[in-house]
Amino acid sequence: xxxxxxxxxxxxxxxxxxxxxxxxxxxxxxxxxxxxxxxxxxxxxxxxxxxxxxxxxxxxxxxxxxxxxxxxxxxxxxxxxxxxxxxxxxxxxxxxxxxxxxxxxxxxxxxxxxxxxxxxxxxxxxxxxxxxxxxxxxxxxxxxxxxxxxxxxxxxxxxxxxxxxxxxxxxxxxxxxxxxxxxxxxxxxxxxxxxxxxxxxxxxxxxxxxxxxxxxxxxxxxxxxxxxxxxxxxxxxxxxxxxxxxxxxxxxxxxxxxxxxxxxxxxxxxxxxxxxxxxxxxxxxxxxxxxxxxxxxxxxxxxxxxxxxxxxxxxxxxxxxxxxxxxxxxxxxxxxxxxxxxxxxxxxxxxxxxxxxxxxxxxxxxxxxxxxxxxxxxxxxxxxxxxxxxxxxxxxxxxxxxxxxxxxxxx
Length: 411
Description:
- The protein is built from 15 helices and no strands.
- Helix content is 81%, strand content 0%.
- The protein has two domains: 1-201, Up-down Bundle (Growth Hormone, Chain: A); 203-405, Up-down Bundle (Growth Hormone, Chain: A), CATH 1.20.1250.20.
- By secondary structure, it is an all-alpha fold.
């Protein structure tokens, strides 16, 4: 490795916030937009209130495409150029949305933002793996995840403040400024971590082969499908959160506060998972979490009917908190289970699994979101179906485990 490639690793005090910011751009690009959705719809002539959910769904669509590209691309051209390319594309998407004369053009900008932000989101993990391993890597990632978890708790408040001060286009201007600062910081301070000798040519064929292998391996495909089922109602929640809190429950300016409280439940779930997974195993925890989502939601359905689709706000918050903790248990475990048989193609395999799961969740989540009618029937029902479908997909996947390892402990 050349001296340029070797560089000097950043001190932890600088590296951790840089990694946290790179990973958090996705959450910022989603959650800061939520308070602005009615204003965007009004200014750009959206006739159906549910159509403004496309501001969120379109970014997920771009993310699904970008995840498939940037992982293999970083193995070919290096981590820094791949992250630079992603950030540059994200900034171009921001410019398109800032100057968008129509809703369709603004949505096109959001797709570009999603494709671009996949670069720092995916490649940053490889950047960390290049430099650290074992317990030190886990320690650094825990600090970076603390930054990552905090962003959804403050992003809606940031978006609401910007909306009041400068309108919804000011939110995209802020995205542009933040990404430009991160671009410059990363370019000037972070050395390249992938030596030229270890790079591999970018190959669409390799991506196709990874897709084919995941489809053929029952465990990988089953847990990928389960991941998509879990994420679908959460995508619907993100798209309709502003309508739920401000239109249905009339929380007004307190919307960011309630959204932030629910976002913290994912941090709680991650901590709980870290403490329990070594003792009980990923499969057992995932089954319990999926059962919890299904049972809690099935109980919530008749409660919703008692209150004509709008349970008391405190009860609805308790419901979402319990469901989101369970969802957070599933996210990491299902992804890890899908990756278990793909160690020989770990990099491209992770990218393909993330993309396939997103391609499953976005259309399903979009259908649920479009069914929003001011009540909670659709969302609660979607979580109930999601829990049951996830259990079914896991059961099918574990048939592959049993076939491959009939005497194994499936925990």
